[in-house]
Design goal:
The chain has helices spanning 34-44, 58-64, 82-91, 112-120, 147-150, 158-166, 187-194, and strands at 6-12, 28-29, 32-33, 50-54, 71-74, 99-104, 127-132, 135-143, 170-174. With 195 residues, the chain is an alpha/beta fold. A hairpin with a 2-residue loop joins strand 2 (28-29) and strand 3. The radius of gyration is 15 Å and the shape is globular.
Length: 195
């Protein structure tokens, strides 16, 4: 029996509105852009293809990720929120996938180890979400049967939209650290961790 085919979908289309300055995904940290850390974690994991959804400042983001084997998906409606980017990305995934790991480009502390931990217990009827303590975070592994629901998402309150409707279909996967809870909103977030 062949292993399930699971790709990664990295969301990198946002406008960094909370950052109140330059695009946070392009901020340099440990030798490369913030988004590059998230993308490299996916590339280093056991997923198949890594798909990156772009929107805001697409050209400089692609420049920051040059040299990597990625499938680019442009979301022309990126101003409509994360839901629109998820919908755009999922609609372009291969038809024969068994599942998809949803990753956020502003979470540079997530590693391939976190992603692989989600993959280990893949089930075609359960959503597997990374958690630390009693909090759910990212990434999240969705089986194919949820792709239709993902393509209907709107707005930015994705956690509420998704998890309020998933009920008993969610399996919480404990992680060894809080990387799955931490994202970058401001440059100071990177400086604080480095210190």
């Amino acid at each position: 029996m062949s292993p399930p085919r699971i790709d990664a979908l990295v969301l990198a289309a946002g406008r960094s509105l909370r950052a109140g300055g330059p695009n946070k995904l392009l901020l340099p940290w440990q030798g490369k852009a913030v988004a590059a850390h998230a993308v490299d974690a996916a590339l280093d994991s056991k997923v198949g293809t890594v798909h990156v959804v772009t929107g805001h400042e697409q050209a400089p983001l692609r420049d920051a990720l040059t040299g990597r084997s990625l499938n680019w998906i442009y979301n022309p409606h990126y101003c409509d929120g994360m839901g629109a980017s998820i919908s755009a990305g999922v609609s372009q995934l291969p038809a024969d996938l068994d599942g998809m790991v949803l990753c956020l480009a502003d979470m540079p502390w997530v590693s391939a180890r976190h992603i692989n931990r989600l993959l280990e217990g893949f089930s075609a009827d359960a959503v597997r979400v990374a958690c630390f303590g009693d909090r759910r975070g990212h990434p999240v592994l969705f089986p194919r049967e949820w792709f239709g629901a993902l393509m209907q998402l709107t707005g930015d309150d994705i956690a509420r939209c998704l998890f309020d409707n998933l009920a008993d279909s969610v399996v919480e996967v404990p992680m060894v650290d809080d990387a799955v809870l931490r994202d970058v909103d401001h440059k100071e977030d990177l400086l604080r961790v480095s210190a």
